[in-house]
Every structure is written in C-alpha cells, then in structure tokens.
C-alpha cells in the first residue's frame, strides 16, 4: 500500500502544519537527516557525504564504502559518459546506505593549486567543470538520488573560508565561478544546491538574495532545495528571506523556535516566507520519497556494496583517469622482458592513499595498494623488491590494523562516561568497538550523556618488529595517552593549535617509546569534550579555549627511522635492478577541507629520494598520488611519470594496469601544472587579507593566465600522452542553425583522428574559441567543447563530432547585465591540449546577439 505522503497535496500539508512544526522542518534534527512530522506522515530523509563515495551517516562507526576516484581523476578522463555511469553507481551506493541525497558534486574552480579542496573539484576550467558536473548529476538522478551541487559560490580556497569575501568583477563571477553551476543547471537540473561558507559582494552566500533568488531561482529557473553548508548559516531572518531552505546540521543554532518566533513577531520574517521555505522542502521530500519509497520508508540500515561489477567498473574508471606525463625511450609499458627485476620504492607503496581528507574521506570496503597491484600483475614472473625510502606523512599513520580490543577483537574499545556534578568522570554509559584510530564524535553521541563527558579508548598494540616507535596524539577536546599504564602524551593540560578536524584541534603531540614484537602494549586514551581552562593553552588568541563545533581524537604511530640511511639503502637497491617504480605523493593529511597546502613541494624528503634513485638507475618511473600539481625538480632525470591522483579502492590495480600495458593511458590534465608556485595566477592573492580574497587575476585562471603572460608551464592544461600516437586532420566547421538568433546557435565541428602508432588507444580532442576584438580584457583561448574517441586500433581512424552552442562565442556584458555574442569572426582551434592546437576554422556572426537566463 502506498504511503499517504506520496500523493499528499503540498499546499494542504503546509496549511495543516503548526508554526512550530514548520520551524522544525527548516533545519535538521542531527548531522545527516531532515526532520519528520509523524502526525502528518511527513518522513525524514537521510543525506550522505560525497563526492568520491557514500560514507553513510556516521563518522564514529562508519559503514565501509566503495571509494571512487577523486574529482581531478574523474575529470582527467574527459569522458562525460563514464562520469555519468559513476553517478549511477554512486546512487546505488547511496540507497544501500539508506540515503537518497548525496552531498556532491563539488563544482568550485581550481583557482590555486594550493587550495585544500582542489582534489574534490573537477578543473580550473569552467566549461570542463560544468559539463562533467552535469554528467555526474544526471547519473545520480537517473537512479532517483538527489545531487547537491556545491559550494555556491566562490569557495575556492580554505583560508578563513567562513568569513572571507571573494572580491571579483561581475564578469569574472559570471564567466568563471558561476559558469559551471549554470551549465549544470542547464544540462542536468540538480535537485539540491549547497551554499558556500564565504561572502560575495560583502554578503554571506547563505543569506545572499542576489545569488539565491535573483540568479539561481529567477534567472536560471532552479526549482530544487537550497541547503547550507554545515555550520555555514550566520543568522536567522537573513538566510530565510534570501531563499535558504534548510539549515544544516541539526540541532539548529539559528532556526530555533525562540529565534524564529521572535523574528515573526517583529516582522523580520513573514509567515508567507516561512511557508515558501517549507513548501520547497516538502516538494523535495515528496519527490525523493516517490522515487525511493523503499529507502525513505525502509529500515534505515546502512549496507556496503562489494559487487564484482562495481569493482571492475571502478578499476577501469581509475585507470582511465591516470595521466602519462613522460615516457622517455618508451620505458612504459613494462614487460617481463624489459624488467625481470623491479624495485618498488616509496612511502606510498604499501599505503592506502585512496582519497583526500575532510568531507571526501570514508572507510573503504577494501583497498588494493600499489604493492598488491604490482605483485598481482606480475604473476611472480619477475623478482620484485620493496623499500620505504623515506616517510611522507604529516600525521603519524593510524594504528587500527595493529590493535585488538581487550576481548581480542580487531580494533579498540571505546567507552563513554558521564560526568558528575563536579565535572569528573562518573559512570560508564555505553561501549563500542572501533576499527579506526581516527575517532570523530561530531555526528554521534549515545543517549544519556551529561553536557560534559569523557571516553576511554583501550586496546592491545602489537607491532611486527622490536624497536623505537613514535606515537602521536591529536585532539579536538582534551586527551592523554597511556602506554602500559604510564602517561606518555599529555594533550590535555597545555595545547598548541593545529589544523586537525577542520582547524579546530591541536597539533600532533608526539613521544618515542620502545615496543616489542614479543609482547603487546596496553594502550589507553582518555578523552574529554571540554577545552583547557582559560589561560592554560598556548594560543595567544585563545582559540582552543572557545567551544569547538568538532570533537574527536586521533592516535598514530610508526617505527622511527634514520631517513638519510633509508634513502641510501633505497638507492643501493635501485642500482642493482632493471627498473624502479617510485610511489610518492600527498594524501588526506596534506590535501583536505579546512586548510590549504603550504607549498607545491612533495612533503618530507621525497624529492631527494627520487633524485637519488634516478641518479643510479635511468629506468625510473615515478607514480604521483596527489589531487593537485606538485613541483618536479627531478623531472629531467627520470624516465617516466604517471599522475595517478587519488584513485579509490582500486588504486593498486589501476596503476598496475597502466604500468604493464593492460590499459593504454588516455587521461589528460584538467588543470595546469606550473614549474613554480610563483607562476600561478593567484600567487599573490590566495589568502584572505582583512576579510577579503582579491581575485585580481580576473578571467585569467589556469591556462588562460599562462597564455596571456607567455609563461611556459611544466605541463599545460589538457596534456597527456599515450603508448601510441595520434594525428588530427580534415577539420570541418559548419553552422547548422541560424547564427542571427542566439537561442538557435549550433555550430558543428568534425575532425578526423587517426592512430598512427602501434598500440590500440583513445584520444581526447579539445576545442578552444577566440572572440573577435571586443575592447575588453579577454583570454586568448577558452575551452568550449571536447570529446573522447572510442578505442582506435593502430592504423585506423574515426571522425569525431563536437558541438558548440551560444555560450561558446559569448561574454558577460557588465554594463547591460546579460550575455552577448560579439559580431565578427570567431576563431575555432582544435588539438590535443591547450598548447597544441594545430587545426583552426572560423564562424562569423553578422551582428551582436544578447540574452538573459539560460
């Protein structure tokens, strides 16, 4: 029998709701859900974080999930079809976790390669970002799961992200930062949208009527739900009047009955405005319930998906995102004949570097490490050696795989304690077994806790070799570590601010201890949710003395090593083998929501390691696991480089598939790789100054900046090579519709792509346009279309079709406040990357054309 809510009249439901019920619907009850109104049959729906997986509804006890490649890896495919299919699988994952709303995709622009969330975003280019975001959204929503495109708009770096104003011209806002959201709305109509933390035109995005009402709803015709980012609401009446439908997370800070009733009585808010916000929410809930009644009205149980079909798809998706940057003397693909002995060296060889950090992080169902993938691919036909070389971590590696609970189960035991009237630990309340030493307590607490409370984390730590180990304790709150009953780390009495947990925690306090492989050590962490008393911490601004929104603790550790000696040992190994594979990079501690990267350098002594190895073995391949560019001072001395991004669960298989030729690499860079950070467009303006981030580079973001200033990058936007070679020819340009009517503009471009090499492979063709002189500062070239060929056999060719609409030839007219196609000859350039465009043609528009809206 169908649930009554599915056919209910929304206006009638709104009329039946009491004022307090309406108020409750405008925020969530907890971290991940909307509020239900049982008496009227209005259900709650669950949301889950993305964008590279579906984490589920708890940071504390996570349901394992399939981790998909990061957005930069997805964008490197330049393939909307495979991104659409990824969206389909993500929707299925969401429903398995009883969720019908995915908080994804992230569609901000990679303005600076140091941005903490660059790996979460598709590209520096607005067209590529918008087209791929639309493909992702259409895949999700084809399965009935609502996409929540984010963050609208200008959240392009993490520094002071909740306060800073992104200062830019209207043209920059329209042509760069709003553009991918506009394309996604035009092509895919996302069901929901999340506002950014910061400000545009001096007003926070969550209360910015110009953005939410004037542009999004009226101009673009957006009909979906507008949600705040988590704790990204800064008032009561302003966001509601501006069009923000839902404050998240709950319980609310601003949309309480007391505050909203006060705003209603003072007429800062009107009842009709409340009804509008409630109606939007109910329309959204009903749409999701109709498409997924078995989930919305289901058992609420979260499940993991591990089908062979899903694994196979993610393996192919990951491999197709890998970009081959260098291949001297055709070192790759490796074969048994070219590499009978291989050394696999580096800090990430046996690591599980599957994703960046923050909202994108999740607990994977499984991970195939690079070491496992390479070993499996070789089928024991070659001799393979391993060496760590050096460390690359920012925080010490987590220890869950080395811990057992007091009862002997994997992990460690977490017990919650209430506090007595004096604030002291009182009685145990509830216990859980955790299989992660990153313990986040923001979205789950057991019922019955006092306002202040504590936990004890207990386990037996068993190491594989006897020696000195370094342990580290990081906390948002207060914590102490005891090893075998002795206080080892005090991150309780005095604390130093750090970037743990979105910048609300401490640095990692460390201690060296002797551990024996013969006997396990008793580990006890005592944590409390209170902050140090005022004056007890070392932060001059008292930040750690303020109530934190986030709460949690992290335990890490690893053997202490002499890195100089380890680098020498790695070089000695490299010298005696046929080929070396070095696996290096960043990781979730270096690239994450909450902070920006400090530099383009590989952390630690990884550059030195690569330089040392390549100096003794010319057949050195470097695999870079990072979601954004790095400097490569060693590039000239290595034979081959693969940009492998963050590839999810299947990273080891995907890397091995490319190295050994099971997959011919076809990935292309979705952002420019600079030689040095000083070369980048936003170098002098990447941080907030007095509450403002000045976008002084204007329209010249990414490759547009390098072309305008004649700066040769390390690797240009769109770059990537293959194991084969391709030729482009026979460009044909035809305007198949009326070029005197903007809404009828459709230009078709056909180019022949021939495989002139010896391997079967796929090529990405990119099309850039150049406007005629308009008397305004304008980029020389702008990507406006792209397409990926199917697999082409050696000696064969295909004709590839690219289509352009009115936006390919337009600019935003700040004076008139509309889009404009200038009269004159527009030039079309076609090639394989932004610096290699051998073909060109023209389209002429007889007069200026203008329009507003989509």
Automatic annotation (TrEMBL):
GO BP annotations listed: glucan catabolic process
Domain PA14: 407-571
Keyword Transmembrane helix found: no
EC number(s) on file: 3.2.1.21
Catalytic EC class: hydrolase
GO terms for MF: beta-glucosidase activity
UniProt-listed InterPro entries: Cellulose_deg_GH3, Fn3-like, GH, Glyco_hydro_3_AS, Glyco_hydro_3_C, Glyco_hydro_3_C_sf, Glyco_hydro_3_N, Glyco_hydro_3_N_sf
Keywords: Carbohydrate metabolism, Glycosidase, Hydrolase, Polysaccharide degradation
Domain of life: Eukaryota
Pathway involvement of the protein, from the record: Glycan metabolism; cellulose degradation
Keyword DNA damage: no
Reaction equation(s) it catalyzes: Hydrolysis of terminal, non-reducing beta-D-glucosyl residues with release of beta-D-glucose
Matching Pfam families: Fn3-like, Glyco_hydro_3, Glyco_hydro_3_C, PA14
Family that this chain belongs to: Belongs to the glycosyl hydrolase 3 family.
Protein name as it appears in the record: beta-glucosidase
Organism per entry: Crepidotus variabilis
């Amino acid at each position: 029998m169908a649930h009554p809510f599915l056919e209910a009249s929304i206006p009638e439901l709104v009329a039946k709701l009491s004022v307090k019920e309406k108020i409750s619907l405008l925020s969530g009850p907890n971290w991940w859900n909307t509020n239900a109104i049982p008496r009227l049959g209005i259900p709650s729906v669950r949301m889950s974080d993305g964008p590279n997986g579906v984490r589920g509804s708890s940071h504390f006890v996570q349901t394992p999930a399939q981790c998909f490649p990061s957005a930069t890896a997805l964008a490197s495919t330049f393939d909307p079809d495979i991104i659409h299919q990824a969206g389909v699988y993500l929707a299925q994952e969401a429903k398995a976790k009883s969720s019908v709303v995915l908080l994804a995709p992230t569609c901000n622009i990679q303005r600076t390669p140091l941005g903490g969330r660059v790996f979460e975003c598709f590209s520096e280019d607005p067209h590529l970002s918008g087209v791929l975001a639309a493909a992702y959204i259409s895949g999700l929503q084809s399965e009935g799961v609502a996409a929540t495109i984010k963050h609208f708009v200008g959240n392009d770096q993490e520094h002071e992200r909740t306060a800073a104003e992104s200062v830019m011209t209207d043209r920059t806002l329209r042509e760069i930062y709003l553009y991918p959201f506009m394309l996604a709305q035009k092509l895919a109509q996302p069901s929901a949208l999340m506002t950014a933390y910061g400000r545009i035109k001096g007003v926070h995005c969550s209360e910015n009527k110009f953005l939410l009402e004037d542009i999004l709803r009226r101009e673009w015709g957006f009909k979906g739900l507008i949600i705040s980012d988590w704790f990204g609401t800064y008032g009561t009446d302003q966001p509601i009047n501006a069009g923000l439908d839902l404050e998240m997370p709950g319980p609310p800070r601003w949309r309480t009955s007391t505050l909203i009733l006060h705003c209603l009585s003072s007429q800062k808010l009107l009842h009709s405005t409340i009804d509008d916000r409630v109606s939007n929410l109910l329309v959204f809930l009903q749409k999701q319930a109709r498409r997924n009644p078995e989930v919305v009205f289901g058992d609420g149980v979260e499940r993991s998906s591990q089908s062979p079909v899903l694994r196979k798809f993610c393996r192919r998706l990951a491999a197709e995102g890998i970009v081959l940057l260098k291949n001297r003397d055709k070192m790759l693909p490796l074969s048994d004949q070219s590499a009978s002995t291989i050394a696999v060296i580096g800090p990430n060889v046996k690591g599980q570097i599957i994703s960046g950090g923050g909202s994108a992080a999740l607990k994977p169902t499984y991970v195939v490490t690079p070491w496992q993938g390479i070993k499996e691919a070789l089928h024991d036909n070659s001799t393979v050696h391993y060496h760590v070389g050096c460390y690359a971590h920012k925080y010490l590696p987590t220890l869950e795989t080395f811990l057992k609970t007091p009862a002997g189960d994997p992990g460690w035991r977490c017990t919650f304690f209430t506090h007595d009237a004096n604030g002291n630990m009182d009685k145990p309340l509830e216990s859980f077994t955790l299989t992660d030493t990153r313990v986040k307590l923001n979205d789950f607490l057991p019922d019955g806790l006092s306002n202040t409370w504590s936990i004890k984390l207990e386990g037996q730590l068993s190491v594989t070799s006897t020696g000195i180990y370094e342990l580290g304790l990081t906390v948002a709150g207060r914590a102490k570590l005891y090893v075998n009953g002795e206080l080892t780390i005090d991150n309780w009495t005095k604390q130093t601010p750090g970037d743990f947990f979105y910048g609300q925690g401490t640095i990692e306090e460390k201690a060296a201890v002797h551990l024996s492989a013969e006997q396990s050590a008793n580990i006890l962490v005592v944590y409390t949710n209170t902050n140090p008393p005022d004056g007890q911490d070392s932060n001059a601004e008292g930040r750690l003395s303020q109530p934190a929104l986030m709460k949690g603790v992290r335990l890490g550790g690893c053997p202490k090593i002499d890195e100089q000696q380890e680098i020498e040992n790695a070089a000695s190994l490299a010298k005696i083998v046929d080929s070396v594979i070095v696996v290096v990079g960043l990781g979730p501690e270096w690239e994450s929501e909450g902070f920006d990267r400090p530099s383009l350098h590989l952390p630690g002594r990884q550059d030195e390691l690569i330089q040392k190895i390549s100096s003794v073995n010319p057949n050195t391949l470097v695999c870079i696991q990072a979601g954004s560019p790095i400097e490569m001072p060693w590039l000239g001395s290595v034979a081959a480089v693969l940009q492998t991004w963050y590839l999810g669960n299947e990273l080891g298989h995907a890397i091995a598939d490319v190295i050994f030729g099971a997959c011919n690499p076809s990935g292309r860079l979705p952002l420019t790789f600079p030689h040095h950070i000083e070369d980048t467009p936003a170098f002098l303006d990447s941080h907030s100054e007095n509450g403002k981030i000045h976008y002084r580079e204007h329209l010249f973001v990414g490759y547009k900046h390098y072309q305008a200033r004649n700066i040769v990058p390390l690797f240009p936007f769109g770059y990537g090579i293959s194991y084969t070679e391709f030729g482009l020819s026979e460009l044909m340009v035809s305007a198949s519709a009326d070029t005197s009517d903007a809404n009828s503009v459709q230009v078709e471009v056909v180019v022949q792509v021939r495989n002139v090499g010896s391997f079967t492979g796929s090529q990405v063709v990119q099309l850039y346009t150049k406007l005629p002189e308009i008397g305004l500062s304008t980029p020389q070239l702008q990507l406006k279309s792209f397409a990926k060929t199917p697999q082409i056999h050696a000696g064969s060719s295909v004709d590839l079709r690219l289509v352009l609409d009115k936006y390919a030839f337009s600019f935003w007219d700040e004076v008139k406040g509309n889009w404009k196609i200038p009269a004159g000859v527009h030039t079309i350039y076609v090639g394989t990357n932004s610096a290699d465009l051998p073909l060109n043609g023209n389209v002429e528009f007889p007069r200026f054309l203008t329009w507003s809206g989509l």
